[in-house]
Amino acid sequence: MSQNIDQNEIDKFSQLAADWWNPNGKCKPLHIINPLRVDYVQQKCGSLTNKTVLDVGCGGGILSESLAKLGANVTAIDLADESLSVAKIHAEQNGLMINYQKQTVEDHAQQHPGHYDVITCMELLEHVPDPFSIIQACATLLKPEGKLFLSTINRNHKAKLLLIYGAEYIARLVPKGTHDFNRFIRPSELMTLVEQAELIVGDVIGMEYHLLKNQFQLGPNIDVNYILMANRK
Question: Which of this chain's residues are annotated to bind S-adenosyl-L-methionine (predicted)?
Fold first, then answer.
């Protein structure tokens, strides 16, 4: 197994396993932003019916299930056994056929080059030692003209204030220690990594949280959370 992993991060998310599908629990922010992410992917891809889709770092399967419900043939990978167990059980209970696997994306790329129409990698890059390794593997996995969706967090004082002090310590939207500011990635840095992987940046859009409304919305503000879409040449 490729070693672009941080066991502390895997353990951290394993501890959330029992709460993955509780919309008011520790994974509440994921449930709030999931419809936005799904709508954005669908908007950029059109119909997902019978498309081959890979969800990298799938956790408990929140995004994976939404993509499967749109008709995609979904494979989803993660390294946390507990999260995968929850994902498999929940998909089975809802009658969804999702191919869950415990595997790194680097190893998956060696076995399935040029296999996927669409790849999603949401909220993972800021939790691994080498984000470029993830992006490069995703590029290998994409079919010609395939699309890659990456979401992560901008590295600036505003993001630190809102996501670490605000979300973790004041609002307690996520458990303390969820984020490491030093691993946040500026959009310009992510664009460079994407281009180094010989992909073309197609779009960048922000996900802005409104505390009083307790909701996110997509827009041009990429100060904190953002999604980047890239195309295979």
Answer: 37, 57, 78, 122
Residue in this structure with the two tokens 């709508």, named with its chain if needed: 39
Residue 202's domain spans which residues?
7-232
- pLDDT score recorded for residue 192: 98
Query: Considering the entire predicted model, what is its pTM?
Result: 0.90
Q: How far apart are CA 192 and CA 206, in angstroms?
A: 18
DSSP string, 192-208: HHHHHTTEEEEEEEEEE
Is position 1 within any domain? no
Contact 177, 13 (CB under 8 A): no
Contact between 209 and 224 (Cβ < 8 Å): yes
**Binding site members:** 37, 57, 78, 122
Distance CA 206, CA 214 (A): 16
User: Residue 216 pairs with which residues in a beta bridge?
Assistant: 209
Residue 15 lies in a domain: yes
What token pair was written down for 202?
């197609």
CA distance 149 to 79: 20
Return phi, psi of residue 58, to 5°. Answer: -75, -15
Question: If you average pLDDT over every residue of the chain, what do you get?
Answer: 89
Q: Residues comprising the binding site for S-adenosyl-L-methionine?
A: 37, 57, 78, 122
Q: Are 59 and 13 in contact (CB under 8 A)?
A: yes
The pLDDT tens digits of the residues spanning 110-119 come to 999 999 999 9
Contact 151, 37 (CB under 8 A): yes
2 domain residue, yes or no: no
Count CB atoms within 10 A of the CB of residue 106.
19
